[in-house]
Amino acid sequence: MLPSIAVILTDPDRHILWVNDGFTNITGYTLAEVIGKKPSLLQGEESEAEVILSIRRNLERQVPFSEEITNYRKNGEKYICKLAIHPVFDHDQALINFLAFEVDGDNTPNIDDIPLLQVDEKYSSSSLKGVEEVKLYFRLRSIVEREKLYLNPNLSLKEVADKIATNTKYLSQVVNHHAGCNFQHFINSYRVEEAKKKIVSNEFRHLTLYGIALQCGFKNKSTFYKVFKEITGYTPKEYQKHYKASRSGI
User: Do 155 and 197 meet the contact criterion of CB atoms below 8 Å apart?
Assistant: First the structure.
């Protein structure tokens, strides 16, 4: 069984844009807690100064590299972080991101079988596939959230694949690998988040729950109720009641 692999995407100035669940599993920090911050937040008193300097120099050189450093989890526990960092360039070769892959070295003594952590030539093909997958997944999330594509009840895998210049097979694979679900469930999770906001908003009190569902991209009542319960653990009505009770202190 492969270990958890933390994935960190930053902007060129090294501010965190996105992390995956593997990052949370290893460090204890969620995306909400680290977005906009720098990965150096994981460093502490015993983080090796010479390694920090080496990382900084390689980032400035904009080359792929690997390192090993003592990091700290959210709870203050030390661990050995084994990492590989790849610069990401646009078509004009301008730096647009850094992409880091990390594992807990205390629980992963041998990283030879983890291509994402290799920057050697013999691993470059499989490693780049992993980098490209994460880049594509980030592009997918970005366009879905920015353009609110999930509000379209007829949104298709092909339509989204065309928007981000890939094919349906690869996009489906990327969603499965990085979101842990199929494309339809991935899109429905955004619809549920939108529905949760509207269900508890006074602005939409005049609508039925199904009326809200229609505004959030659902076109089938039974699908809305089924997916909502799967994701939240509540029916829409139960979620509404639970929210009101929590607000009133009951």
Answer: no
